[in-house]
Amino acid sequence: MNTPTYSQLLNRRTQVWATEANKTRFDEPTQREFQKLVHINRKDRGYAFAKECGVASVPHDVFTDIDAALTGPLPDRFVVKPLVGHSSAGVHLIETRSDGTLWCHMTNKEFASPEALTEHYKKRLAKAGKFKMSAEILRESYVEDSLGFDVPLDYKVYGFYTGAVLVMQRYAPVHLPYDQWAFAMYDRNGTDQGQIRWKTDTHPDVKLSLPDNFDALIKATDTLVKQARVSFVRTDLYSTPQGAVFGEFTPVPNAGKESFTPEYETILGQHWQNSIDELGLNYFNKPT
């Protein structure tokens, strides 16, 4: 068969992600890859794995729920987010003020007290459901962005077993509509690739540039993917004045939907297939 595109491989992975029963469609080595991805997809386990690999991660604590996370003295700046979730749902970047109010840079909202934030979070959780926002909470340190953005830039690195290929740099406060977010796409050498992804309108007033430690983002991803022994996973990283910092793993970016131009669908698909071959995995043929 022809080499699958990136989205074809991603859709194949999404099928097994959706239900345990689908795992029988794959051989044992491929099932082990999925099991590893499920394990490190949970944010606290991802942090622990990054630490094992010598990659810095965000200082954090795990709480049973939002009540526990916001009880007692709070740091001047901190982040609360679901332990399991996606699409930035429930992510709050908080600055505490001297009058007791809280300001969220992510949502551009003020909360009169920790109790008010707790109530707001519970309402969001009830609407989102457990797959988009878990009840368990991470309270993290507020990451300082190396380029000075109030909402730290995301660096979403498309990491394959054969090496990182592509980096999406993204400024994405949830209080802004999608067409006011800002994106840039780079290859592993830091060369801007232009508009290679659908729906990447860039806010004209937000100017993105390469951080000085771009190479460290690539090195961290190469290390993490090699140590995990998976064919592909997107690593979500931060660039800080202290260096590259791990944020989370994303095994099924964009929920398996096609998102790149045909040229890059082919390029990424080839890298993924090469990684599958090198690891001896089998994504399409039924196990014998």
TrEMBL record:
It holds the Pfam family ATPgrasp_TupA. InterPro entries: ATPgrasp_TupA. This is ATP-grasp domain-containing protein. It comes from Neptunicoccus cionae. The lineage of its organism: Bacteria, Pseudomonadati, Pseudomonadota, Alphaproteobacteria, Rhodobacterales.
